[in-house]
Amino acid sequence: MPRIDSKGRIQLTPSDAMKAGWRSWIGLLVVASGALIAVLATQPMSSAGQASGGSLAGSVLVGVSIAWLVLLGAVVLLLRSYCFRAVWDGRPVEPGSYLKGMYQVWGVLVVGGLLGALGALLMGSMMPGVLVALVAILALVFSRPDGRALGV
Q1: Is 13 within 8 Å of 3 (Cβ atoms)?
Q2: Coil vs helix vs strand at 4
Q3: Which of 99-103, 133-137, 148-152 bottoms out in mean pLDDT, i.e. has the lowest?
Q4: What was the pLDDT predicted at 43?
Q5: What is the mean pLDDT of residues 130-134?
Q6: Could you please report the per-residue DSSP string of 86-100?
Q7: Which of 83, 104, 140, 152 could form a disulfide bond with 109, CB atoms 3.0-4.6 angstroms apart?
Q8: Rounded CA gap, 76 and 139, in Å?
Q9: Alpha helix (H) ranges present in 124-145?
């Protein structure tokens, strides 16, 4: 039976939050992996004979992807720490706060991976864009939903 708070909203249960987290995580993983597979299927290993205009734009995009992952990755981990502040007191995290914190982390990783894959497409070569996308996807895999913070 759904619980209703003082404002008349239905409260999210920990099991519902885990289901929503798994659905979102799998969807984001499919999108990021699909982009990586598309790059692997369409691009050559080296950039020999490619035009420099696309190569420059791709290189800039890969650099933006790296900066995105490093800078926003650090910021989003701090924000997730704020969302998970109940753990500091030994209490379980509220389901809505758990999802908010994890959606931020997953979003930054997926966008960073997609930027790296797009950079590889624009450069006309797999490296280094595929490497950046692969690191972002592996970080996404290792940050899968876990019920420990929710007390599940």
Answers
A1: yes
A2: strand
A3: 148-152
A4: 77
A5: 94
A6: GGGGTPPPPHHHHHH
A7: 140
A8: 13
A9: 129-142
